[in-house]
Amino acid sequence: MVHSSKSLRSASNMFVINLAVFDMMMMLEMPLLIINSFYQTTIGYQLGCDIYAALGSLSGIGGAITNAVIAFDRYKTISCPLDGRINKVQASLLIVFTWFWALPFTVLPWLKVWGRYVPEGFLTTCSFDYFTDDQDTKVFVACIFVWSYCIPMSLICYFYSQLFSARWLGLYG
Asked: How far apart are CA 134 and CA 36, in angstroms?
């Protein structure tokens, strides 16, 4: 729809498209889950597990930070209606930022530099190793929690709270 309608090709909609791309990546896990469930094991051994978990990591972390970028865009657009709009170049840079934000905790476990991907549950899905009881794994889990959840959620809360508090104070209409 965005491609066929020029009026929808705004910087704000670029963020929505980016979020949709991350969501589509999450959907790519579904065929792997179905096949793994049918065979009752992870197909492709460690490589299959790594692919499954990397798709989940990239799409989950990328989607979280994209939601924070969308909150920032709403904040800029509403708080400064005349000069606060993000242009397409700035939007493109923010989208590249979301992809780079998602990469560290996707690539590091895949390369086994820090953390690793392991089968979980009924051994038909894979994710970060959060069960190993050593200090390195605990630090990894704490860092990924802060990076992929706390920081994006804090940004979302901050930008929307700024909008709500300004609205309650009557600054923006």
From this structure: 29
